[in-house]
Amino acid sequence: MLAEVDRRGTIAAAAEALHLTAPGVSMQLATLEREVGLPLTERRGRRVALTPAGKLLARHGRIIVDQVGVAAMEVAALREGVAGTYRVAAFPTAARSFVARAWRRLTEEPASGPALRLVELEPVDSLPALSAGEVDLAVTHSYSNMAPAAQPGIETTPIAREDVFLAVPRAADRAGQTARLAEFAREDWIVPHHRWSCREMIERACGLAGFSPRAVAEATDFSTQLALVAAGVGVALIPELGCVGVPDEVTLRRLAQPVHRHLHLAARHGWQADPGLARVADMLTDTARTTVSPHPRANDAGPG
Questions:
Q1: How far apart are CA 102 and CA 139, in angstroms?
Q2: What does the alpha-carbon distance between residue 204 and residue 146 come to, in Å, rounded to a whole number?
Q3: CATH 1.10.10.10 in the chain, residues?
Q4: Domain 85-291: which topology?
């Protein structure tokens, strides 16, 4: 009110601008003067001027009105899902592929979506982090030959599916054949660490084929596994998102008894009520489905 009186010069004009009555404005200003203990206005003919105390409070009033306006705009942006910062956990092959693509889309159009913060975590770590409130969204995976991990209070949504391929050295490749794992029972194997679900997936797949894989190397990074296969160290099971930069000395074979890796988004119950988080989830889902191709880079006809 003080700011309007200062701007318009009369209580009547200030009241009209504020859609109030002039007596109502006068009463409010009189109450404010009593609380402050100083006169805030003074008559100058037909106009009203502010005292030094009034001008000081009016300046603060204008700042407060501006801040309320900014807050209202930011709340509206949050309501529309185009503001806020969200923490995302993702396992490495997802982080470097479709999560990075989703982030690029947000970066290229900064006014059209919320901001991201990323931490690289395997599902065994990302689900507890999500439950503890350390992240807002987690990109996780599960394998078709294993029961998916569950966490109380967490909802998971499937977003895509990958094939798992057998990576073999080109020199040992059986051209034109799908891979029957039983035929590789005597081979050396390159496997991830015991802590990761990828290791259990391999042991289950080989166990179903009637043998236990003879692990000669442990490497969690799929690029390292592919390099070891190229060096003739052994064979490895690699999901599609891990089949990046496949060396010329390596051939990827489809499995005669397929194994799939399912990709999921995980969030705490009620996450759909947050438009910004829902927008991030939609973007990750879209980029995941366009990144995982229906026909990955397997070679069913010859070396590759």
A1: 12
A2: 8
A3: 2-79
A4: D-Maltodextrin-Binding Protein; domain 2 (3.40.190)
Q: Name every residue whose Cβ is closer than 8 Å to that of residue 164 and which is 6 or more positions away in sequence.
A: 143, 201, 205, 237, 238, 239, 240, 255, 258, 259, 260, 261
State both tokens at 304: 């590759």
Please state whether the predicted TM-score (pTM) of the whole model is above 0.70.
no
What is the spatial distance between Cα 157 and Cα 140, in angstroms, rounded to a whole number? 10
Which residues make up the CATH 3.40.190.290 domain(s) of the chain? 85-291
**Residues of the chain under the 50 pLDDT cut:** 80-82, 294-304
- Both tokens of 162, joined, read 């990958």
What CATH topology corresponds to 2-79? Arc Repressor Mutant, subunit A (1.10.10)
For residues 256 and 261, what is the distance between their CA atoms, to the nearest angstrom? 16
CA–CA distances in Å: residue 238 to residues 17, 93, 201, 210, 216? 69, 11, 11, 20, 16
Distance CA 253, CA 250 (A): 10
Cβ contacts of 210 within 8 Å, gap of 6 or more = 182, 185
pLDDT digits (tens, 9 = 90+) for 74-127: 555 555 444 578 999 999 999 999 999 999 988 877 566 688 899 999 999 999
